[in-house]
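Narrative of accomplishments. A recurring question from our advisory board has been how the design workflow behaves on a single, concrete structure rather than in aggregate. To address it, we present the structure tokens for one chain from the evaluation set, followed by the sequence designed for it. No filtering or post-editing was applied between the two.
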């Protein structure tokens, strides 16, 4: 329960001011709170609003309409900023307001739609009309109410980040063995085994016929959004074991990009390696860039969001992978992320986001562990995956048929659900509480009026079948890993195959994916998954069924058929 001192009552907005709505986190589980010290220093960021969101939505739809005069005529970061970003006058007005209220403005950029600044709790409470509280042990702090600003300033502001420190992220990859990944497992037989490696994926998901003709060669890079660096020898151990091209400085290349400087290797290296392994599996000829976020130096409150912004600002990669979920954040955090995804879509970058490994429960912030944990009550959708400008990837499980240790072809799949706890997980999926149903989902579950997710799925179970992965920081492989972050980079690789076939970027593939379902009721090259559910720990989830559902979306790929049909 939340206990507050009477002095923490939220102020009333002044006349002539406007509220930046949805811009404070849920603090109900933080326990006893006291006023934050007035002299406490804050590192802050203003995310500036998109100009004319209706025009932007229309623009993104026309980019994907083959009858439109601007079909696939992608924009650039500069052109996007000029048309949909804040005006120079807006940027100057926001910066001037911050300066006049005692903040130090470090940067103000219309291109990135951001203003970085620093100041004290006292300045923030005065300038934004908020009350900032802190836990008695000084670990966590947060604003208790939405900021208010003069109306002309508020009109240019999407969110103010840094008024709290509750933003946390969790990777959508998990070790499936209680004692950790087993290094150099005995169950590797040749290049595969009773668990899945690349050749098994080629056989099961029908990519074998494409290898040698379509492999992502000559395409622009895949951007992986990560918060841990990686050891190259670890990634190449996977490539060597499974006869994939080794990562070198070229053909295919892998490069780490660090917009926040000196992002170190940490426990999330497993996530980075999973993304590398399975993006490289489905598109072994495509170059990869690993964009690294650093929480210690992040300007936005999230190193991952800083890394995402860098991948979109640089605009070098034609597909983007985000295999993380978030907790402890406000609605405006997701609105800000959505504006970044919208820019990526306008630039032709196809974004793939993991639906999460926590079933319909989703993640909540836990103050004791200071991390994201499985919600024990109620549904908490992974809102970063519900953005209408991304393709959300769910998970499945199945028992393969092996012949001499190699998969012999597809079998029916079910929604991934291995229960909770250290050994388990279940595919994310459900309905957004923030985003309305996008146009491409019209006619799909028509009564909920919300963005439904995931859109597609892929194998995710750590036991059925279980997936091999590079062993962290060592030149070895291990088994097994689970999670929707297996399919998320794999789907990005599939998009590279299509990009190679069409010799161009794809943008948001959801428009085409859902359009392919309009005639037959099921997109060509997508295998329907009709069994299983994603409820965990007593929280009732959603069930798979014929056609689109809230556990596996449309289903899993028959890669050769899907690429050709697309």
């Amino acid at each position: 329960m939340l206990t507050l001192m009477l002095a923490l009552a939220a102020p009333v907005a002044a006349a002539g001011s406007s509220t930046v709505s949805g811009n404070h986190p849920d603090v109900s589980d933080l326990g006893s709170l006291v006023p934050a010290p007035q002299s406490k220093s804050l590192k802050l960021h203003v995310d500036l609003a998109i100009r004319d969101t209706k025009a932007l939505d229309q623009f993104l739809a026309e980019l994907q309409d083959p009858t439109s005069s601007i079909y696939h005529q992608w924009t650039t970061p500069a052109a996007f900023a000029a048309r949909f970003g804040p005006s120079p006058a807006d940027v100057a007005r926001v910066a001037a307001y911050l300066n006049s209220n005692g903040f130090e403005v470090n940067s103000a950029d219309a291109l990135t739609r951001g203003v970085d600044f620093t100041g004290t709790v006292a300045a923030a409470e005065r300038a934004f009309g908020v009350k900032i509280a802190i836990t008695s042990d000084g670990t966590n702090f947060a604003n208790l109410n939405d900021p208010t600003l003069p109306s002309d300033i508020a009109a240019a502001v999407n969110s103010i980040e840094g008024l709290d420190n509750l933003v946390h992220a969790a990777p959508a990859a998990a070790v499936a063995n209680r004692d950790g990944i087993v290094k150099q497992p005995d169950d590797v037989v040749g290049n595969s085994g009773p668990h899945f490696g690349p050749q098994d994926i080629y056989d099961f998901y029908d990519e074998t016929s494409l290898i040698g003709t379509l492999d992502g060669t000559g395409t622009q890079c895949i951007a992986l959004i990560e918060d841990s660096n990686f050891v190259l020898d670890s990634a190449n151990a996977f490539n060597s074991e499974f006869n994939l091209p080794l990562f070198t400085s070229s053909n295919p290349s892998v490069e780490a990009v660090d917009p926040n400087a000196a992002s170190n290797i940490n426990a999330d290296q497993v996530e980075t390696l999973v993304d590398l392994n399975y993006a490289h599996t489905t598109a072994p000829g495509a170059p990869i860039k690993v964009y690294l976020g650093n929480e210690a130096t992040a300007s936005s409150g999230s190193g991952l969001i800083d890394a995402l912004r860098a991948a979109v600002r640089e605009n070098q990669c034609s597909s983007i992978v985000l295999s993380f979920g978030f907790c402890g954040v406000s609605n405006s955090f997701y609105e800000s992320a959505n504006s970044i995804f919208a820019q990526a879509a306008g630039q032709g970058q196809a974004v793939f986001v993991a639906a999460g490994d926590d079933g319909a429960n989703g993640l909540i912030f836990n103050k004791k562990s200071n991390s994201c944990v499985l919600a024990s009550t109620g549904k908490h959708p992974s809102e970063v995956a519900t953005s209408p400008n991304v393709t959300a990837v769910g998970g499945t499980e199945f028992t393969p048929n092996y012949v001499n240790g190699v998969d012999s072809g597809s079998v029916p799949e079910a929604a991934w659900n291995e229960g909770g706890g250290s050994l388990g997980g279940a595919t994310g999926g459900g309905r957004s509480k923030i985003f309305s149903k996008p146009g491409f989902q019209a006619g799909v579950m028509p009564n909920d009026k919300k963005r439904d997710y995931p859109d597609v799925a892929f194998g995710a179970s750590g036991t059925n079948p279980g997936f091999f992965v590079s062993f962290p920081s060592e030149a070895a492989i291990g088994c097994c890993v689970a999670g929707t972050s297996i399919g998320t980079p794999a789907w990005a690789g599939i998009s590279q195959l299509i990009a190679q076939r069409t010799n161009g970027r794809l943008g948001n593939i959801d428009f085409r994916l859902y359009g392919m379902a309009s005639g037959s009721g099921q997109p060509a090259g997508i295998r329907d998954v009709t069994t299983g559910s994603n409820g965990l720990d007593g929280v009732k989830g959603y069930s798979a069924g014929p056609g689109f559902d809230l556990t596996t979306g449309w289903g899993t790929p028959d890669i050769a058929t899907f690429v050709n049909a697309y």
